[in-house]
C-alpha cells in the first residue's frame, strides 16, 4: 500500500539576492514526499498561481501542483485546513518556516491544531509506515536522532536534516501543470494590522574563552557550548526562579 | 578465365557496396532534420577534402604523404580497374596507368604497414591491423592482373594456379575496399568521411573559417527535444559525422581528461555513438577504453537512452570542452557539440548535473553569478577606482566587461591591474556595474540552455540600451560567449580579449612601458581564447613588448593543454588518477620558467591551485600594469622619476 502524502510548499527568497525561488525547506519536504510516495505525491500551495517560482517545484519531476488561489495578504490557514481535511491524506510534510511573508513558523502548529493531528518537528526520515502507525526519525541538535512512533494521519515539518532536494530541471518544470482550486478567501486580520520590519540576526550567546593552552583553545573553538554549567531549578517560587534567571543574565553580561 | 571472373567480382562488390551504402544512409536518416545545403555541399566536398582536411592531416607529414599515396592510388586504381577489368577496355595506356596507380597505392600501403608495425597506443587495432594487408592485396593483385593488359606479359601467363591466386587476391581487395567501405569495415571512413565533409554541420569551418559557438536549442517549441537522449535525437549529419571517424586517436592523445585518467576518451565516445546509431555493444572496439571502464559492458541502439546504456554520465561530465579533440581531428568531427547535446538532456530533463552543478545553476538563476554572491556586491572590487558606469554615461568607446571574476579576490587583482592599464592609456571606458550578469558560459556548458538563454537575453537587453564601440574583457569565456554565441539572439558586438586590446594600444604607442624585470616567462594559451577564437599572437605580442622572451611549452598555441577549468569541469569534478592543472604545471616546469603568464581567470584559479613550490602565475594585465612607467608622457624618453600625484576622486 502506498502512502498518501501531501507536501505543502511556499515561495522562497534567495538569501543573498532576495529573488523568488523554491524555498529550501519546502523543497526538502517535496524531496522527502517523493521518496515516500513517488509519483503519487501531491504538492499544495496556497497563493498566487502566476508566480514563476512555483515551476521550480514542478522541475523536481512533479506532474502537477495544486494551487489554492489566494491574493497576497490572505490567510492560508483556513484554506489549507479545509483542503487537508477532505484530502484523505496520511502524511503532510512542510518546511519549518517560510522564507517570505510572515515567516513566523507558526503555520504547521496552527494547522495541526485545527486538524487535531500530531505534529512532528524536524523530521529527518520516515523509517516505516505500517498499520496506521509511522516510525520516524526526528532530528535533534548536533546530529542526534530520536525515533518516534506517530499515529496516522500526522503533520511533520522538515528542516535541514531532511534529505537534500533534487535538482529542478527545466523540461519537467515547463511541462508540469499548475492546477488552480478556487477557495474562499479569508483575510489575515492579524497580518493586516501588523507592522513588518526587517529581521535582525539574533544576538549570539557570548562565549568567553579563558583557555591557557593551545589544546584548551582548540577545545573551546570546536566544542559547542554545552549544558554542563547549568542547573535545574525545581519547585521554586516564581520570584526565586526569576531571581535565578536575572542573576545568570547579570553574570553573562546581558543585563547590566 | 580471369577475364570473366574479374568483371563478376568487381560488379558484385560494387553492387553490395551500393546496398551497404543505402543501409548506412537509412541509419543516418534516423537522426533529426538539419538544415544543410545538400547539393552545394557535395560540390564543395572535393575542395574541403583536398584543402581543409589535408591541412589538418599534414600536421603529421608521415601519415599525410602516406595517405596521399594510398588514397590517391586507390581512387585512381579503382576507377581504372572498373574501366579496364570491369568493362573490358583493354587499352594499353589505361593498362599502364592502372599499373602506375597500383604501384602508388602499394607504396602507400607499405608505409601504412610500417606505422602499424609498432603502433602507438592511440591507434585502434583489431580490423585496422588488417587494413595494410588488404591494401597490399588489392594493389598487388590488380598490378599483376593488369600486366597482360599493358602488354608486358602474355595474356595466358601463369596458367590456372596463378589465375586462382590472383582471383582470391582481387576478391580480398575488393571486399575490403568496396564492400567493406559501406558495410562497416575500416574503409567506412572514406565513404562516410566524404559525405560528412559535404554535409558538415559547421560548414563555416572550411576555407579557413572558424565556428566554435554552440548551437542554440529551440526552447519555444515544446515538442523539440531538450538535448540528446537517444542516438536518434542527434541530427542526421551528426550521426554521419560519428561514422566518419578513422580511429586515429589524435583526439585521445590530446584529451586532458583522458591523460588525467578520468573516464573519457573522445575516440571511444565517438565509436560508442557509432555503436548507438547502428545498434550493438562496444565489445568490438579495439582501442583504449575509458580509463577505469572495461570494454564490452556497454551497448545500445538508436532508440535506447545513451546514458547508462552506451555511455556513463561521468564520461560526459569529464569533458572540459577544451576543443583539443576537435582541433586535432583530421575528420573534423565535432566531439564537444555531441557531449554538450547529451549534457543538455541530463540537465534539462533529468536534473542530473553532478556534484556542485545543481547549486551553481540555482545560483545563476537566483543571483546571476555562479557563486551565489549578493548581486549588489558585484562592484565592490572597484569601490575605490571611481569607474564610470554606462548607466550614467550612456555612451563610451570601450565597454569593460568585468565578468564573474569580480567576486573572486584573486581575479580582482587582475581586474584592478587592467583598469590601471586602461587609465594609463587614457582610454574612454565604462563598466555596466550592477547591470552586468554572468555571460551564461558555465550554464551552457553544463547543459542548462534555458538559464543560458535567459542570461544572454537579459544581457543583450542591457547592452542594447547603450552605445559603445567595443567590448573588452579579461575573461576568454565571456569573450567567446559574447562574440560567438550571443549572435543567435541578435546580440552582435565587436568583442576583444584584453590581450588583443592591450596589443592594440601598445602598438599605437598609448602606453609608456618599461621592461619586465627578473624571472623568465612562459605563456599558457587559454582554450577559449586560442582554439575557440584563434587568438595566439596578441598575448605573445604584449609579452614581447615588455621585453619578455617567451619560453614556449611543448604544448602551446593550438596544441595548448587545458588547465582543467573549462566546461564546468571544476564544478562537476569527476575524479581521475591525477588533476589536469597538475599536468599542465608539469608542462610549465619543463620550460624552466619562473613565471607563467595567463589570460583567463579560470586558468589562473586552476594553476594557482597547484601546490607550491611552483612557478608564479600572473595575468598579462598584471604584467603590463607592473611594467607601466608612471607619469611620463608616452613617446618621450622616460623622465626622471617623478612621483605621480595621489589620485583623489
TrEMBL record, chain A:
SUPFAM superfamilies: Adenine nucleotide alpha hydrolases-like. It comes from the Bacteria. InterPro entries: ETF_a/b_N, ETF_b, Rossmann-like_a/b/a_fold. It holds the Pfam family ETF. Keywords: Electron transport, Transport. Residues 11-189 form the Electron transfer flavoprotein alpha/beta-subunit N-terminal domain. GO terms for molecular function: electron transfer activity. Belongs to the ETF beta-subunit/FixA family. This is Electron transfer flavoprotein alpha/beta-subunit N-terminal domain-containing protein. It comes from Pseudomonas fluorescens.
Automatic annotation (TrEMBL), chain B:
GO terms for cellular component: plasma membrane. PROSITE patterns: 4FE4S_FER_1, 4FE4S_FER_2. The keyword ATP-binding does not apply. Keywords: 4Fe-4S, Iron, Iron-sulfur, Membrane, Metal-binding, Oxidoreductase, Transmembrane, Transmembrane helix. The chain crosses the membrane at residues 6-26, 68-87, 93-114, 135-153, 159-179. GO terms for molecular function: 4 iron, 4 sulfur cluster binding; metal ion binding; oxidoreductase activity. It comes from the Bacteria. Residues 236-266 form the 4Fe-4S ferredoxin-type domain. The keyword Membrane applies. This is 4Fe-4S ferredoxin-type domain-containing protein.
Amino acid at each position: 500500500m502506498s502512502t498518501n502524502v501531501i507536501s505543502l510548499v511556499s515561495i522562497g527568497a534567495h538569501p543573498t539576492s532576495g529573488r523568488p525561488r523554491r524555498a529550501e525547506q519546502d523543497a526538502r519536504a517535496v524531496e522527502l514526499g517523493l521518496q515516500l510516495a513517488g509519483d503519487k505525491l501531491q504538492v499544495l500551495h496556497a497563493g498566487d498561481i502566476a508566480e514563476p517560482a512555483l515551476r521550480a517545484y514542478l522541475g523536481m519531476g512533479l506532474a502537477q501542483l495544486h494551487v489554492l488561489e489566494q491574493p497576497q495578504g490572505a490567510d492560508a490557514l483556513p484554506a489549507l485546513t479545509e483542503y487537508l481535511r477532505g484530502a484523505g491524506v496520511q502524511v503532510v510534510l512542510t518546511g519549518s518556516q517560510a522564507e517570505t511573508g510572515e515567516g513566523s513558523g507558526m503555520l504547521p502548529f496552527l494547522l495541526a491544531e485545527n486538524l487535531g493531528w500530531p505534529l512532528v518537528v524536524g523530521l529527518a526520515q520516515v523509517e516505516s509506515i505500517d498499520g496506521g502507525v509511522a516510525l520516524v526519525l526526528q532530528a535533534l541538535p548536533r546530529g542526534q536522532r530520536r525515533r518516534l512512533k506517530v499515529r496516522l494521519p500526522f503533520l511533520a515539518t522538515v528542516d535541514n536534516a531532511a534529505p537534500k532536494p533534487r535538482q529542478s530541471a527545466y523540461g519537467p518544470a515547463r511541462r508540469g501543470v499548475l492546477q488552480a482550486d478556487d477557495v474562499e478567501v479569508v483575510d489575515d486580520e492579524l497580518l493586516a494590522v501588523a507592522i513588518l520590519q526587517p529581521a535582525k540576526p539574533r544576538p549570539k550567546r557570548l562565549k568567553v574563552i579563558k583557555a591557557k593552552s593551545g589544546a584548551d583553545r582548540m577545545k573551546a573553538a570546536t566544542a559547542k557550548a554545552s549544558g554542563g554549567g547549568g542547573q535545574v531549578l525545581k519547585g521554586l517560587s516564581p520570584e526565586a526562579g526569576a531571581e535565578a534567571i536575572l542573576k545568570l543574565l547579570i553574570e553573562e553580561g546581558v543585563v547590566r | 578465365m580471369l577475364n570473366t571472373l574479374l568483371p563478376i567480382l568487381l560488379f558484385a562488390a560494387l553492387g553490395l557496396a551500393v546496398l551497404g551504402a543505402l543501409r548506412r544512409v537509412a541509419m543516418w536518416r534516423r537522426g533529426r532534420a538539419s538544415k544543410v545545403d545538400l547539393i552545394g555541399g557535395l560540390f564543395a566536398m572535393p575542395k574541403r577534402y583536398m584543402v581543409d582536411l589535408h591541412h589538418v592531416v599534414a600536421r603529421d607529414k608521415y601519415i599525410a604523404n602516406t595517405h596521399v599515396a594510398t588514397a590517391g592510388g586507390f581512387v585512381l586504381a579503382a576507377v581504372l580497374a572498373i574501366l579496364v577489368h570491369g568493362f573490358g577496355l583493354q587499352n594499353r595506356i589505361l593498362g599502364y596507368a592502372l599499373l602506375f596507380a597500383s604501384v602508388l597505392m602499394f607504396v602507400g600501403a607499405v608505409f601504412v604497414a610500417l606505422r602499424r608495425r609498432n603502433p602507438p597506443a592511440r591507434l585502434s587495432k583489431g580490423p585496422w591491423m588488417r587494413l595494410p594487408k588488404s591494401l597490399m592485396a588489392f594493389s598487388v593483385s590488380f598490378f599483376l592482373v593488369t600486366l597482360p593488359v599493358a602488354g608486358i606479359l602474355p595474356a595466358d601467363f601463369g596458367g590456372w594456379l596463378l589465375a586462382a591466386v590472383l582471383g582470391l587476391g582481387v576478391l580480398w581487395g575488393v571486399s575490403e575496399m568496396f564492400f567493406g567501405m559501406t558495410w562497416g569495415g575500416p574503409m567506412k571512413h572514406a565513404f562516410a568521411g566524404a559525405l560528412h565533409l559535404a554535409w558538415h554541420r559547421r560548414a563555416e569551418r572550411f576555407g579557413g573559417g572558424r565556428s566554435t559557438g554552440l548551437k542554440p536549442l529551440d526552447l519555444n517549441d515544446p515538442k523539440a527535444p531538450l538535448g540528446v537522449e537517444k542516438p536518434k535525437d542527434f541530427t542526421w549529419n551528426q550521426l554521419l559525422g560519428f561514422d566518419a571517424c578513422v580511429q586515429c586517436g589524435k583526439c585521445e592523445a590530446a584529451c586532458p581528461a583522458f591523460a588525467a585518467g578520468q573516464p573519457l576518451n573522445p575516440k571511444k565516445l565517438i565509436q560508442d555513438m557509432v555503436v548507438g546509431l547502428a545498434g550493438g555493444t562496444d565489445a568490438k572496439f579495439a582501442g583504449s577504453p575509458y580509463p577505469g571502464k572495461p570494454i564490452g559492458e556497454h551497448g545500445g541502439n538508436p532508440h535506447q537512452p545513451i546514458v547508462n546504456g552506451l555511455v556513463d554520465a561521468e564520461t560526459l561530465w569529464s569533458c572540459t570542452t577544451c576543443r583539443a579533440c576537435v582541433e586535432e581531428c583530421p575528420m573534423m568531427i565535432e566531439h564537444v557539440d555531441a557531449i554538450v547535446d547529451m549534457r543538455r538532456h541530463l540537465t534539462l530533463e533529468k536534473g542530473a548535473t553532478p556534484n556542485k552543478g545543481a547549486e551553481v545553476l540555482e545560483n545563476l538563476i537566483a543571483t546571476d553569478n555562479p557563486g551565489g554572491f549578493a548581486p549588489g556586491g558585484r562592484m565592490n572590487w572597484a569601490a575605490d577606482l571611481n569607474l564610470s558606469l554606462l548607466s550614467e554615461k550612456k555612451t563610451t568607446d570601450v565597454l569593460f566587461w568585468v565578468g564573474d571574476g569580480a567576486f573572486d579576490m584573486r581575479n580582482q587583482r587582475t581586474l584592478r591591474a587592467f583598469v590601471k592599464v586602461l587609465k594609463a592609456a587614457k582610454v574612454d571606458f565604462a563598466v555596466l556595474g550592477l547591470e552586468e550578469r554572468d555571460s551564461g558560459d558555465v550554464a551552457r556548458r553544463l547543459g542548462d540552455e534555458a538559464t543560458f538563454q535567459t542570461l544572454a537575453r537579459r544581457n543583450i537587453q542591457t547592452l542594447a540600451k547603450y552605445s559603445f564601440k567595443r567590448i573588452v574583457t579579461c575573461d576568454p569565456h565571456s569573450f567567446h560567449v559574447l562574440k560567438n554565441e550571443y549572435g543567435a539572439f541578435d546580440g552582435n558586438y565587436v568583442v576583444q580579449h584584453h590581450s588583443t586590446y592591450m596589443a592594440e594600444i601598445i602598438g599605437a604607442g598609448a602606453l609608456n612601458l618599461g621592461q619586465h624585470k627578473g624571472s623568465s616567462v612562459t605563456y599558457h594559451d587559454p582554450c577559449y581564447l586560442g582554439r575557440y577564437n584563434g587568438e595566439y599572437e596578441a598575448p605573445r605580442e604584449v609579452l614581447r613588448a615588455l621585453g619578455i622572451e617567451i619560453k614556449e611549452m611543448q604544448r602551446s598555441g593550438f596544441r595548448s593543454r587545458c588547465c582543467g577549468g573549462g566546461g564546468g569541469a571544476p564544478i562537476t569534478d569527476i575524479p581521475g588518477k591525477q588533476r589536469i592543472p597538475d599536468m599542465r604545471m608539469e608542462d610549465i616546469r619543463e620550460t624552466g620558467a619562473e613565471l607563467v603568464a595567463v589570460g583567463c581567470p579560470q586558468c589562473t584559479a586552476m594553476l594557482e591551485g597547484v601546490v607550491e613550490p611552483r612557478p608564479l602565475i600572473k595575468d598579462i594585465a598584471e604584467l603590463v600594469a607592473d611594467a607601466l612607467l608612471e607619469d611620463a608622457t608616452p613617446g618621450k624618453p622616460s623622465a626622471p622619476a617623478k612621483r605621480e600625484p595621489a589620485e583623489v576622486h
